[in-house]
Amino acid sequence: MSASTxxxxxxxxxxxxxxxNGVKVFSATMAPERDGLGEKITNWLRAHPNCEVVxxxxxxxxxxxxxxxxxxxxxxxxPKT
Length: 81
Known about the structure:
Blueprint: E1 7-9, E2 18-20, E3 22-28, H1 31-35, H2 37-47, E4 51-62, E5 67-77
């Protein structure tokens, strides 16, 4: 954990932990939602220019009927001045 008030993320062989103070999860189950997930993330990033993404985790899960895609962004939100 860094000296900041945020948490940190570290995966093997990634170097030192990366501090973060926010997490945003985008998920979709149906095909049309999955197709639009990238645009949804892009729009969120544009609307939050004070957030610097420091790590991303992509998770896929499936059963017989559904395929779920989740994209988790760990970010550092800079103080608003």
